[in-house]
Backbone:
């Protein structure tokens, strides 16, 4: 049995986001993204865990937002060392016992034994391991006939006037991580989780390439993936020159260590999503008009005729959406939100951000847009 099959990841169940200002997160997810709160920690769970949590969901995408109520809880310990950010990624697995054996035999480091809770006729089981991604933990979850998100959480009634976003959040597409050196993360994902490398790139942004340049971003990136579930984990590290000044190292310093830079959410209609989210005052990175001037020729070299695809380039230009593709007019479109620290003009909000992606036959990683993302971040940093 291949490593991917033996581990048995079904997909990303959710991620745990630690913040000190939960009302701001509520506004972002409910008013900005149009998600709904589906559950919250019961008073008993808050007293036991020392943190107050709410779960927001759209489609198969869920985030657990937790705020410390005690100095001894996980959220408090994380926030003592870092700004707001992703502390745990939760994976649904096919067989928890098999996943446990697989990971322990390959050198995984459990934080605790398998926990099993029976509630309301259902069974909820999980365990958590440390990772090579700073203070980020991975949790593996198996549910059997569970009616709640997890034991100790109370369902929140859906408001009568709630309407799910018409553009459709679908699932987590990839989770990008920044580190001062990628080797420990790459080797850990490969040798412990059994992930495989599927892509790599190395480049400098235009700022770094200018004569007499004093700043810019150089980076190396590899993408590790789990073939069974399709989940991808890009890893970025800084590259000379301007190692210290580049945005990968800036992220690591702002985050006080390696961590999750962004999570890409697949949507059914990226144009509709961006149109709606802009109306909801969600901020996006800017894309220069020159990007779209060069797009037809760039895409033609990849086998994409912009006159024969389902999205018009001028509409993408109006909204700032990026496009990449492959032969036979297969393509994807994507856009990146501003990071939280920029959005709220507050360093403690953290350097994490989201990406929206719509796949129109292209299963790749948007190689043609990779440099565009980092140059867009630098433009935002210059005007911040």
Residues:
């Amino acid at each position: 049995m291949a490593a991917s099959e033996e581990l048995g990841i079904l997909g990303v169940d959710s991620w745990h986001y630690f913040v000190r200002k939960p009302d701001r997160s509520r506004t972002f997810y409910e008013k900005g993204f149009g998600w709904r709160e589906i559950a919250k920690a019961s008073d008993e769970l808050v007293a036991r865990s020392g943190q107050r949590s709410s779960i927001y969901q759209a489609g198969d995408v869920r985030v657990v937002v937790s705020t410390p109520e005690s100095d001894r809880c996980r959220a408090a310990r994380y926030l003592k060392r870092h700004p707001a950010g992703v502390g745990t990624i939760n994976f649904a697995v096919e067989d928890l016992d098999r996943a446990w054996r697989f990971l322990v035999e390959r050198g995984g480091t459990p934080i605790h034994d398998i926990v099993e809770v029976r509630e309301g006729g259902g069974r909820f089981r999980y365990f958590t391991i440390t990772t090579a991604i700073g203070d980020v933990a991975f949790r593996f979850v198996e549910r059997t006939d569970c009616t709640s998100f997890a034991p100790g959480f109370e369902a929140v009634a859906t408001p009568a006037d709630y309407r799910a976003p018409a553009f459709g959040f679908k699932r987590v597409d990839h989770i990008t991580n920044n580190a001062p050196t990628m080797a420990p993360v790459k080797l850990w994902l490969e040798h412990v989780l059994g992930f495989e490398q599927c892509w790599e790139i190395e480049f400098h942004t235009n700022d770094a390439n200018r004569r007499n340049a004093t700043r810019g971003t150089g980076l190396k990136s590899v993408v590790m993936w789990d073939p069974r579930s399709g989940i991808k984990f890009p890893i970025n590290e800084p590259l000379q020159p301007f190692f210290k000044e580049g945005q990968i190292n800036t992220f690591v310093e702002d985050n006080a260590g390696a961590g999750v830079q962004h999570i890409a959410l697949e949507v059914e209609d990226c144009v509709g999503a961006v149109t709606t989210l802009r109306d909801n005052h969600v901020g996006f990175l800017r894309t220069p008009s020159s990007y779209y001037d060069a797009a037809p020729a760039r895409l033609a070299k990849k086998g994409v005729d912009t006159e024969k695809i389902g999205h018009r380039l001028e509409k993408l230009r109006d909204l700032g959406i990026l496009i990449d593709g492959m032969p036979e007019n297969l393509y994807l479109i994507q856009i990146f939100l501003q990071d939280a620290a920029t959005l709220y003009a507050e360093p403690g909000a953290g350097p994490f951000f989201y990406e929206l992606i719509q796949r129109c036959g292209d299963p790749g990683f948007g190689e043609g847009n990779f440099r565009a993302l980092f140059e867009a971040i630098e433009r935002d940093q210059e005007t911040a």
Observations:
- The longest strand covers residues 9-18.
- The chain has two domains: 3-155, 169-383.
